[in-house]
Write a structure and sequence with these properties.
Elements (H helix, E strand, L loop, with lengths): L13 H23 L5 E7 L11 E7 L3 H13 L4 E4 L5 E3 L4 E7 L8 E4 L2 E5 L4 H10 L2 E2 L11 H6 L3 E2 L2 E2 L4 E7 L5 E5 L12 H4 L1 E8 L1 E2 L2 H18 L5 E4 L10 H7 L6 E2 L2 E3 L6 E4 L5 H19 L8 E3 L4
Parallel strand pairs: 2-5, 3-5, 4-19
Antiparallel strand pairs: 1-2, 6-7, 7-13, 8-14, 9-10, 11-12, 11-13, 15-18, 16-17, 17-18
Helix pairs in contact: 1-2
The structure holds uridine-diphosphate-2(N-acetylglucosaminyl) butyric acid.
Length: 329
């Protein structure tokens, strides 16, 4: 007697079914993008993201795409929307903590040369969102312009610095912005003067929903010696006060202007606290360093340990400055 046929409908539980549908949507989107985008566009499946962050932890992206034009970026947004998959934009990953399970949907990196241009016109610098802050600082120095030296010490790209209004050495990114170019999630490009864009300590709310494409930065002519001295001063201060091991920069925002998070964590005696290979830096207590084999879970646990101590000992709520993306393993 032949074995009765098993019906496939009883085989899948709802979780498996959702995973199968998700995998199918990812495959379809991968194929769509290969057809729609120019052949030299970088499109990868299951791309490890740890190496694209300075902290070097976290799992893969379902898809990683590096569009080569504004139109290419708009096409990625539109196609992902049609396939029902989320799009996450990353910069140089210097302020990112990616969870160990990685990021679902498409991760867009603005690493292509199109988004990394830096052009000097008189005392204005036009730079793309993918331009390294360090390159912008050096272009300004070469052109005899002061005001952007503080970028030298921030290891990210302009897009991330705009989105979080990154700061160092007493200056904020938006102090230096004349106008901002950005794209809506439906692909519309706009440009607005910075004076019309509200910004806060470590945030540009507009860029929570829109993607920074680039900015015109303002600077002031100065003699070469003045610029070099400022840059050297900032660079020396950074080397003395910040650790050299992989990290995501400052972990927490300062809870109050008069209470820097680094000093608070230091006063709580937490320097050197370690979970796995994640450690509160003995150099600067607001930097959590990866000693080599840290996982995102180690870093997240360390964040919770420090937050709990700050709450219990000082009644202060620490909010992460580091952006946390993705899902647990
Ligand atoms: N401090 C300690 N112990 C420490 C660290 C700091 O006592 O372990 C003290 C310092 O001595 C100083 C005060 O805390 O009196 C503030 O420290 P620091 O000058 O390093 O400035 P910060 O407030 O910790 C801010 C930005 C940094 C930026 C520096 C330098 C925030 C959260 N952080 O740090 O930004 O590099 O100023 O301009 O606003 C980042 O955004 O990732 C970042 C690192």
């Amino acid at each position: 007697m032949s074995t009765p046929l098993r019906l496939s409908t009883e085989a899948l539980d709802p979780g498996d079914e959702a995973a199968a549908l998700h995998a199918e949507a990812v495959s379809n989107l991968f194929r769509d993008l290969q057809i729609l985008l120019p052949p030299d566009t970088l499109i990868r499946r299951d791309e490890p993201l740890a190496k694209r962050t300075t902290l070097r932890v976290g799992g893969p992206a379902d898809l990683l795409v590096e569009p080569g034009s504004d139109a290419g970026l708009a096409l990625v947004l539109e196609t992902a929307r049609l396939r029902g998959l989320p799009v996450t934009v990353i910069g140089r990953g210097s302020n990112l903590l990616i969870r160990d399970g990685g990021v679902r949907g498409v991760v867009v990196s603005l690493g292509h040369a199109h988004f990394s241009r830096v052009e000097v016109h008189g005392d204005r610098i036009t730079a793309g969102a993918g331009a390294r802050l360090k390159s912008i600082a050096h272009e300004a120095r070469r052109a005899g312009l002061t005001g952007l030296e503080f970028f030298e010490g921030i290891p990210g790209a302009l897009g991330g610095a705009l989105r979080m209004n990154a700061g160092a050495m007493g200056a904020w990114t938006f102090d230096a912005v004349e106008s901002l170019r950005y794209m809506s999630r439906s692909g519309t490009v706009s440009e607005r003067p910075a004076s019309e864009i509200p910004v806060e300590y470590r945030a540009c709310p507009l860029l929570r929903t829109h993607i920074a494409l680039g900015a015109v930065l303002k600077a002031t002519p100065a003699d070469a010696e003045t610029i070099r001295t400022r840059m050297d001063q900032f660079s020396r201060k950074r080397w003395e006060s910040q650790p050299s091991e992989p990290s995501a920069g400052c972990t927490f925002k300062n809870p109050l202007p008069a209470v820097p998070a680094g000093r608070l964590i230091d006063e709580l005696g937490l320097k050197g606290t370690r979970i796995g290979d994640a450690m509160v830096s003995p150099v600067h207590a607001n930097f959590f360093v990866n000693l080599g084999g840290a996982t995102a879970k180690d870093v997240l646990t360390l964040i919770e340990v420090v937050r709990t101590r700050a709450r219990d000992a000082r009644g202060l709520e620490l909010e992460t400055e580091v952006e946390i993306l993705g899902e647990d393993a």
